[in-house]
UniProtKB/TrEMBL annotation:
Protein name: SDR family oxidoreductase
CDD domains hit by this protein: SDR_c
Record-linked PANTHER family: DEHYDROGENASE/REDUCTASE SDR FAMILY MEMBER 7B, SHORT-CHAIN DEHYDROGENASE-RELATED
Species for this entry: Paucihalobacter ruber
GO cellular component: membrane
Entries under InterPro entries matching the protein: NAD(P)-bd_dom_sf, SDR_fam
Keyword Oxidoreductase applies: yes
């Protein structure tokens, strides 16, 4: 059955975003995929339309790490009179290295994307959902949101913001018919490791610590549709977080730093 609803998915050209888009399409929802990778966007559009021929997939090539990107997306959507009932803020990337030596320009773009763009898109689309009496927002954070992360300090902090912001708004939305879900995956077999600029990672797709994007997307999608406020995919991730809460923060950060050094063995710090 074709839905009257449309889902907007950022970072929808690949990885978790693409897998989420496929799930929306399978349930009969039309799609708007936003990504900065135009070739990948076209590939995603054709793949989903071939799998679900009755679904309309619109693509919007946009760098969401730029100032006013959220307003650009919102204006495009409203101009074309799309009815957005599902918003997925999935786009993101990481920067690895000691904070004193990492490139500020790249970190500033990351903060723009993770903090300002996510907040602005939520701000812009939320009132319409409340007026309609129905809507679902999925903000993709990370297990990194639950503690400080040496060698990826700004990334961890930005994901903490997404978690705190989303859970607070979720509380405000009780009785409105609208919900916000925060998805906190662990290491996932996507292009993220390449995005931190460190070459090969020691965590392989077959590692017990590494999840498949389709599995992560399914966990997030199910939680979103049930209106849950938080989902942490994978028993390993939930167990590691539970253990993390039991140890002193100083020890936790030491463990995280050693883990980062193993995950990114070939990283080059700074510019």
């Amino acid at each position: 059955m074709i839905s009257r609803y449309t889902a907007l998915v950022t970072g929808g050209a690949s990885g978790i975003g693409f897998e989420l888009a496929r799930l929306f399409a399978r349930d009969g929802h039309h799609l708007i995929l936003v990504d900065m990778n135009q070739p990948k966007l076209c590939e995603a559009k054709h793949a989903i339309e071939n799998e679900c021929p009755e679904i309309k997939v619109y693509i919007l090539n946009c760098n969401l790490a730029r100032e006013n990107a959220a307003e650009f997306v919102y204006n495009h959507v409203t101009t074309h009179r799309f009815n957005i009932s599902f918003l997925v803020n999935n786009a993101g990337f990481g920067v690895y290295g000691c904070f004193a030596e990492t490139p500020w320009q790249k970190e500033m773009c990351m903060l723009q994307l993770h903090v300002l763009t996510v907040t602005a898109l939520t701000k812009l689309f939320l009132p319409g959902m409340i007026t309609a009496g129905y809507g679902r927002i999925l903000n993709v954070a990370s297990v990194a949101a639950f503690q400080p992360g040496p060698l990826m300090a700004v990334y961890y902090a930005s994901k903490s913001y997404i978690l705190s912001f989303s859970q607070a708004i979720a509380n405000e939305l009780h009785t409105t018919g609208v919900s916000i879900t925060t998805l906190c995956p662990g290491i996932t077999a996507t292009g993220f490791q390449k995005s931190v600029g460190n070459g090969e990672s020691k965590v392989t797709p077959n590692s017990v610590l590494c999840s498949h994007p389709a599995d992560v997307a399914l966990s997030g999608y199910k939680a979103l549709m049930k209106g849950k406020s938080l989902v942490i995919p994978g028993m390993v991730n939930r167990t590691l977080l539970f253990v993390n809460w039991l140890v002193p923060r100083s020890l936790s950060m030491s463990i995280i730093r050693k883990a980062q050094e193993k995950i990114h063995p070939n990283a080059v710090l700074g510019n």
